[in-house]
Design brief:
Number of domains: 2
Order of helices and strands: HEHEEHEHEEHEHEHHHEHHHEHEEEEEH
Largest sheet: 10 strands, mixed
CATH class of the largest domain: Alpha Beta
Protein name: Asparagine synthetase B
Structural class: alpha+beta
Oligomer: single chain
Distance between the termini: 65 Å
Shape: globular
Number of helices: 14
Organism: Haliscomenobacter hydrossis (strain ATCC 27775 / DSM 1100 / LMG 10767 / O)
CATH architecture of the largest domain: 3-Layer(aba) Sandwich
CATH topology of the largest domain: Rossmann fold
Number of strands: 15
């Protein structure tokens, strides 16, 4: 009798297939996830396999979930990512809990791994960056094992952006002023090499000046966003992008940068209707200033000490405003501040259409902002490296294995997975 019962169970198992747990959950709370950054990489890897995933907004720190698979479980173990195995009933209970009108949570379906491009200068023969500084986005993409393609002016002008869903603007100067590095670094070999290389690239693409090439690149990126792309920028790539748009057709470069004097009436000719984020700003008067304009709060005059420098993330309604909720998912609402050539944005120069995601309210600065342009989205994040407070040119790059739970780096990865989310109509 027992043998017949076991045989029957075997036949049922052969028909139904092996019994298994239904879902893997990657908890994203402060103390429950060993490596927050690599958890994004696991989720991207699953999406890249053609498997949909869930982003459980505001549930246990913004957890991820996907169908259980032994290969997925093994990958979590290999990468050191904390996970839990949930049966169908338990996962459905979680979805029901999230769906409750009283819960400020939302279950967002992730459908497809976005194709990622990083706008960054060309590398040398050894594959190393030609610039003497690193980039937080490429650091965290590499650490999280998320694939990306590097492209620069030649590829942008060749209309390669259409092949990608998401674009990051590396620490960059889109105004053609070579990072305003002349005063501090003109005696450094890398500065002259970079300047010469930029000028040769501009000429090879049919432009007389670097500023003219950069303006053309900025317009290509604008069209990419307007057509439905996702653009993310940090540090000086934020304000210089908008300055270049506002200065369309106006020479704002001093003679030390491009060989001829700037337009003396440049300020009055700026067109703020063309910008993404900023309005009514004033260009820097001296070419020897490090700042490009008064948009940036600057390194000097910030009345805050490093140990007190934090910014707060806004708490949005997950069901009514899922986009900003996605972008602010974190295991803490307070994030350590960090500086850069562009550190943060003065609120009085933000357009009314700009949504502030993170701010230091005590000193009146916006650190993390976002909005819509056409059919696409853009996000600006002030500062250079979330885990190096005062990162300087020629400093060594940050070792992210020492910061696997970095809240500041999590914000970058929120933007990277954002295009994978199934679009819902905004309710407000």
């Amino acid at each position: 009798m027992i043998k017949k019962y076991l045989l029957l169970l075997g036949l049922v198992g052969a028909i139904l297939g092996p019994l298994k747990a239904a879902y893997i959950l990657l908890p994203m709370e402060h103390n429950e996830q060993k490596d927050h950054l690599k958890a994004y990489g696991i989720t991207y890897w699953v999406l890249n396999k053609g498997i949909e995933a869930w982003w459980l907004l505001n549930y246990r720190g913004g957890s991820f979930a996907f169908e259980h698979n032994k290969a997925f479980e093994k990958e979590c173990l290999t990468r050191g990512v904390s996970y839990e195995i949930l049966p169908d009933a338990q996962f459905n209970n979680i979805l029901n809990q999230i769906a409750s009108p009283e819960a400020n949570m939302e279950a967002m379906k992730l459908e497809k791994a976005p194709k990622i491009a990083v706008y960054s200068p060309e590398v040398d023969a050894k594959g190393l960056s030609v610039q003497p500084w690193d980039d937080a986005v490429t650091l965290v993409l590499t650490y999280a094992e998320i694939p990306y393609t590097m492209l620069y002016d030649r590829e942008v002008m060749g209309d390669k952006l259409a092949e990608y869903d998401w674009l990051h603007l590396h620490h960059e100067d889109f105004t053609g002023q070579h990072g305003r590095n002349h005063r501090g670094f003109r005696s450094h070999g890398w500065y002259e090499e970079s300047k010469t290389r930029s000028e040769e690239l501009a000429r090879s693409l049919g432009f007389n000046k670097v500023s003219e090439l950069k303006l053309a690149v900025v317009k290509k990126i604008r069209d990419f966003v307007g057509g439905g792309g996702f653009m993310f920028a940090m540090c000086s790539a934020t304000d210089t992008y908008d300055i270049a748009l506002a200065a369309d057709g106006v020479d704002i470069c001093a003679e030390i940068f491009d060989g001829d004097p700037e337009d003396p009436d440049a300020q009055s000719k700026l067109d703020f209707n063309k910008t993404f984020a900023f309005k009514n700003f004033t260009l820097a008067e001296s070419p020897f200033e490090r700042a490009f304009s008064n948009i940036d709060v600057g390194r000097m005059g910030r009345n805050v000490s490093p140990d007190q420098d934090y910014f707060s993330l806004f708490d949005f309604s997950a069901k009514w405003d899922p986009v900003p909720t996605i972008l602010t998912q974190c295991h803490t609402r307070t994030v350590k501040g960090f500086m850069g050539q562009t550190t943060a944005f003065k609120k009085q120069y933000l357009k009314t259409s700009v949504l502030i995601l993170g701010e230091n309210k005590a000193i009146g600065e916006a650190r993390y902002i976002h909005s819509i342009f056409g059919k696409g989205f853009w996000t600006f994040y002030g500062g250079h490296d979330p885990e190096d407070y005062r990162h300087r040119i020629e400093d060594p790059e940050t070792d992210l294995s020492l910061h696997p739970n970095s809240p500041g780096y999590r914000l970058i990865l929120n933007n990277i997975l954002f295009p994978a989310a199934k679009k819902k109509e905004r309710k407000t």
